[in-house]
Design brief:
With 457 residues, this protein is α/β, with parallel strands linked by helices. It contains 17 helices and 13 strands. It has helices at residues 3-10, 49-52, 56-78, 104-109, 115-129, 152-161, 179-187, 201-204, 220-227, 247-256, 281-302, 309-319, 370-374, 377-383, 399-402, 407-413, 425-440, and strands spanning 21-23, 30-35, 40-45, 84-87, 140-143, 167-172, 191-195, 233-239, 261-266, 307-308, 339-342, 347-349, 363-364. The chain has a ten-stranded mixed β-sheet with strand order 10-9-8-7-6-5-4-11-12-13. Strand 2 and strand 3 form a beta hairpin. Helix 12 crosses helix 17. The longest helix has 23 residues, at 56-78. The protein is globular, with a radius of gyration of 23 Å. The two termini are 35 Å apart. 45% of the residues are buried. The model has no long low-confidence stretch (mean pLDDT 94).
């Protein structure tokens, strides 16, 4: 008999058997028990933890499910193909936000991509995605920034010409999102994300101002009113030292004006200037979790959900990994793997966060083969960055629920060594603990989209 197989079948935490780690999730009655390699987990009553080590029923359940979990994780991490592009149609922005990941010089003096070049780029991407995207699905193009609406005419022309070939989105500061532009995105079913960093102009405009120092959030009410029922509408709030204490009030504001989906994204610290407003992990996590609690209170009071999409994605990483919609909290992340970024001159980067990091320029869309660029060393550094090779992630029980984001941040903050953790380990750790507490209390569905489990096995 194969002694290796025998030990694997019978025992945990010894020999060749599966290694489980128990995790304090901050719950009164339960702890988490996690097999980190496969992300197999269960919640165990604290007074039963000692008994589970020799529980045959538990080991049988693990053996029954671990293969499926392992295959699912392997597929998510290594077998997905590119299906989206973050497309910067201009380097320029009419804002000078403190935490922007694009260098100031580019935002002031950079170039626009011409209409003809946008057409050329979309035609090449159309041909490329025919090889990677299953028949019947459309790849995504998200016009990103800088501020894409500074090149509105060329962007809208591209959307019109290729409307049958892509699902389009626009991420904008909303300052140029007038009624004509809103009419266009509604007519063409274009996704729209706008940035709002607080519940009032005093907070929201603190770090988001134009080059003259003026804010814009006072003008948002009309825009939100027109877009709030648009299926592709969402709002992004970037968490910094200046607004983290106001996150619960920000959630109140979003809910009041009818926002259905938002993201409360911790700041990315890729550029030095952004680090001047970097919050402390633990304090940011405390305010973030209070804001999540507030969304639940509002839901129970009104029957209307406000989904915090980035947290919902962490929750899905636990309860239904293949259902996650964002690819930042997995290792390797989606950069250079599930998506890539294009700058205004056609240069290609693994992710938009790398646009201001020139050493990660893998080639040019107008000159190079897309497949060849995705295989360059610049892209491979990101697409092959694994938690198993990052300290302390390699011994962390929740490493596959967090993914040690963000590689661009890790690289610029750690002497150009991408195999380091990002800036907010404790922030993500506390999200995972909170998610497990929700599961223990049977509340997890209250934080997820309707139909989140559609097509799940």
């Amino acid at each position: 008999m194969d002694s290796k197989k025998t030990m694997t079948d019978k025992y945990m935490n010894t020999g060749y058997g599966p290694v489980f780690q128990h995790v304090d999730i901050g719950h009164e009655n339960y702890v988490g028990l996690i097999q980190p390699d496969t992300a197999f987990w269960t919640l165990v009553r604290k007074d039963e933890l000692g008994n589970i080590v020799g529980d045959k029923k538990f080991m049988d359940e693990f053996k029954r499910k671990s293969g499926k979990y392992g295959r699912e994780m392997e597929n998510l991490r290594f077998n997905l193909k590119a299906s989206a592009v973050y497309f910067n149609p201009t380097d320029r922005c009419n804002f000078n936000c403190t935490y922007c990941y694009i260098p100031e010089k580019m935002r002031k003096h950079g170039s626009h991509m011409s209409r003809e070049k946008i057409f050329q780029a979309l035609e090449k991407l159309k041909k490329y995605f025919k090889k990677t995207v299953p028949k019947g699905r459309k790849p995504q193009i998200i016009f990103h920034g800088a501020e894409p609406l500074m090149n509105k005419g060329a962007v809208f022309a591209g959307i019109e010409k290729f409307s049958n070939d892509f699902d389009f989105g626009i991420q904008t500061n909303a300052s140029l999102l007038d009624d004509e532009a809103i009419d266009f995105v509604l007519k063409h079913k274009v996704g729209v994300g706008i940035s709002i960093d607080g519940p009032n102009p005093e907070v929201a405009d603190k770090l988001r101002r134009d080059w003259k120092g003026d804010g814009y959030s006072r003008n948002f009410s009309h825009i939100i009113e027109r877009l709030k029922d648009h299926p592709g509408f969402n709002v992004i709030c970037t968490i910094t030292t200046e607004n983290m204490k106001h996150l619960s009030k920000t959630v109140d504001y979003f809910h009041k004006v009818g926002v259905k989906v938002c993201m409360l994204n911790i700041i990315r610290c890729t550029q030095k200037k952004s680090r001047t407003v970097k919050p402390d992990d633990a304090i940011a996590a405390e305010h973030f979790i209070k804001a999540l609690d507030r969304t639940w209170e509002l839901y129970k009071k009104t029957g209307r959900k406000l989904i915090v999409a980035n947290f919902a994605n962490i929750l899905l990483a636990i309860v239904a990994p293949s259902g996650r919609r964002l690819m930042c909290d997995i290792s390797p992340c989606g950069g250079g793997r599930c998506f890539f970024a294009i700058s205004a001159n056609g240069d290609m980067f693994p992710c938009s966060e790398f646009v201001g990091v020139p050493e990660f320029n893998g080639g040019n869309l107008f000159k190079d083969d897309v497949d060849a660029v995705l295989k360059t060393e610049m892209f491979r550094q990101v697409s092959e960055r694994k938690v198993e090779e990052i300290v302390p992630c390699n011994t962390c029980a929740i490493r596959h629920f967090c993914g040690s984001p963000c590689p661009a941040e890790a690289y610029t903050m750690n002497n150009k060594d991408i195999k380091n953790p990002g800036a907010f380990c404790e922030f993500y750790e506390e999200q995972v603990r909170y998610a497990f507490r929700l599961i223990a209390d049977g509340k997890e569905k209250d934080f997820l989209w309707a139909g989140w489990d559609k097509d799940m096995n």
